[in-house]
Amino acid sequence: MTIFGKRLAEYVTFSRFFITLILVVGLTRLVLSLGGVPNATARWFSVTAAAWIGVLYYSVRIHARGFGGSKQLLMVCLLLSLAAQAIIVPAIALAIFTSHDNIYSAPEFSFGQDGKTWSHLAAHLLLGTTAGSLVPWLVGTLILLLTRKMIPGSKSTEATASG
Q1: Which residues touch 105 (CB under 8 Å, ≥6 apart)?
Q2: What was the pLDDT predicted at 141?
Q3: CB 26 within 8 A of CB 85
Q4: What are the phi and psi torsion angles at 3 (to 5°)?
Q5: Which has the closest alpha carbon to 58: 44, 43, 75?
Q6: CA 150 to CA 152: how far, in whole Å?
Q7: How far apart are the C-alpha atoms of 114 and 7, rounded to whole Å?
Q8: Are 54 and 90 in contact (CB under 8 A)?
Q9: Where is pLDDT greater, at 157 or 126?
Q10: pLDDT, tens digit, 9 for 90 and up, residues 56-88
Q11: What secondary structure, in 3-state letters, does the chain show?
């Protein structure tokens, strides 16, 4: 399957470090919560922070490595968002089925509401994957544009110019 001129495997390979980091941070956060560690402690393992650091990193790296442009950044942002939701959605489902909060369903992480609801889970499936990809992509696109102004050439343009 080709998306914006690249195979899905290329996107996964390009962004695998932060995909893995998000999954590890998300699982660590969940395991700590389920293990009885207070949410105030477990919250230091932030999926959101890991994802945003990834967006910042890939917004620069896409240009520096000649991987593409804003379309390719959109796919990377989508993969980062999907990695986060791959942990969060099952954790909310676990809370629903067990009637026991975890860090992903606790009221302090659910706008003060009960997070053990199907509507909360659906919001993560719908908004977490769409807005959770588009908002970082918009910010990342601005960073990508600034990067292009500050660092005119990329590896692919240098290779083309010298080859």
Answers
A1: 91, 92, 95, 96, 114, 115, 116, 120
A2: 96
A3: no
A4: -130, 120
A5: 75
A6: 6
A7: 40
A8: no
A9: 126
A10: 999 999 998 989 899 999 999 999 999 999 999
A11: CEECCEEHHHHHHHHHHHHHHHHHHHHHHHHHHHCCCCHHHHCCCCHHHHHHHHHHHHHHHHHHCCCCCHHHHHHHHHHHHHHHHHHHHHHHHHHHHHCCCCCCCCHHHCCCCCCCCHHHHHHHHHHHHHHHHHHHHHHHHHHHHHHHHHCCCCHHHHHHHHC
Q: How far is CA 84 from CA 4, 121, 146, in A?
A: 23, 13, 27
pTM above 0.85, yes or no: yes
Average pLDDT, the chain: 91
Place of tokens 């790296």: 61
